[in-house]
Fold this sequence. Notes:
Helix content of chain A: 25-40%
Order of helices and strands of chain B: HHHEEHEEHEH
Structural class of chain B: alpha+beta
Distance between the termini of chain B: 82 Å
Radius of gyration of chain A: 15 Å
Strand content of chain B: 15-25%
Largest interface: A-B, 28 and 23 residues
Largest sheet of chain B: 3 strands, mixed
Distance between the termini of chain A: 36 Å
Oligomer: heterodimer
Shape of chain A: globular
Number of strands of chain B: 5
Strand content of chain A: 35-45%
Amino acid sequence: MIREEEKIDFGAIKIHNNVIASIAYLAALEVDGVSRICDDIKSHIAHLIGKKTKSGAIDARTEKNENVSITIPIIVKYGYNIPEVALKVQEKVKTAVEEAADISPKDIVVKIKGVEK
Amino acid sequence: MKTALSILFYTIIFAFIGTLAIAFAFHIIDINELMAQLMYAYNDLRMRLITGLSGLVFILLSFSAAQVITGKIQREKTIAFTNPNGQVTITLSAVEDLIKRLAHQLSEIKDAKADVKATKKGIDIRMRVILRSETNIPDFTARLQDLIASKVQEVFGIDEPINVKIHVAKIIGFEDKHKKQSEKNEEIAVPYQGLKI
């Protein structure tokens, strides 16, 4: 789904949800304590057919009232405090999406899927 | 919504296969007509293309449906808490991963498996461990229970009471390992073995 971001004199600027997911992917990976972002079948297929932008299994959705919610499944490095890592991911993703797309996500759901070294 | 679509997808597929089987069994389908249609689909390039693409779509849809269904099952097994920016869910398998890693760091444990369940009373952790023979089991298991409960509470920030049950499944000794090691040492101790002058 494409989110209509802004209407200016030259035309409308639209930001695809995949773009928001990619921003969230890169931002989440920068957080200390995040080992990796989980993948799903869709992202595997996209990678196989040569899609280079990665967003893993991150799900960015625009609701009817233009609110964006992002779900990020992550694997946390062993030895880190999980609530702290999750909070940092939420803050980092929020800031990154706000800076890059000028969108303030309403909800950032972090799913801890595993712990690894 | 996705689960409903997945169920609808499988219902349609199974209903279609069922109807075909019934029609075939009761001779509702004319076998010659069926063969003619199949021959047409087999030989005509456009029909082959359509059939191949339909197959591909069905495979993708079935993968997607399976993912939705398994995802729903996994979703139920989580611990959740809310931050100002949104919700954080921790799958119970992540808790199991942590416990396993913690257990493998202790020299007294040879192997460990953990099963975590979230109940209304709190978090139930059942551990199955294989210990080394010279371990003092009552002392060690008490220490392990404390360690796991405190580590899980600390790492996951869980406030609920944590109940750790430990099942010692096996106790293994060092003897075999020592034997092998001493045999190896003996072999190494012979200098110039096999040297022909």
